[in-house]
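**Fold tokens**
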Amino acid sequence: MKKLLSLLFISLFATSAFANNCSSEAEKGINSFQGGHYEQAIDFWKTCTDQGIYNADLYYNLGNAYFRLGRLGFAIFYYESAHRLNPSDKDIIYNLKHAKSLTKDKVQESEEENPILSTIFALHHFISLKGELWIITGLVWLIAGILLFKVISKTPRNKNICIGAVFVLSIFLGIITLSAGYKIFVLETETKGVVTATNTDVTSAPHDQSQTLNIISEGTVFNVLSIGNGWAEIQLGEKIKGFVKTTEVGIIDSHL
């Protein structure tokens, strides 16, 4: 718990990425949080989100403020939003994991026990999608430059060095491209939701008269299959599937 509380204050200064676009509201939010006025801090920071600003630090700070208010559902919602934007941030991962440990519904998440696959999975999330796209761009230009040098080079030794360098860089480029492609695929196809109400009914059909199949509690994270007419079709693990009211849940923005 000490680590969680210390992170709350460390995160307050990690706002430079969005300060230029929302500097006044961000600073007022920081001051409000430091003064213990968490609801006021949320109002200021949500002014930034209402302007269409997507930033991991901003969502992380919102999660911290909601956590301080004891509103676990919204805290997890914003931690999940921050994690979607920056999956390698250790502070976000820690706070998200801690908040999830406080929820009533414990959903068994599959964990990879194979050490090799676990290492690959960790490396996959070590660099953000934006970072991988920059690396891909840099590698393409670097390979192009080496190939150009190979063409103008007159010595066989230099040509062989260029071929070897291009081969190694191409392998690295392929790995990074596969990782980035998978992240883009997940962003385009996977949508998550979080219960923000005290609890919500999972019904058999998208209307109030339908049968209640399950009740899931605040902070529970689920997969969203579709959204329409005030209802979201969800799936939670292998056993729970049905519909919930969108007014009682938060849907992670597909733009994240």
Summary: Residues 88 and 126 are 5 Å apart (CA to CA).
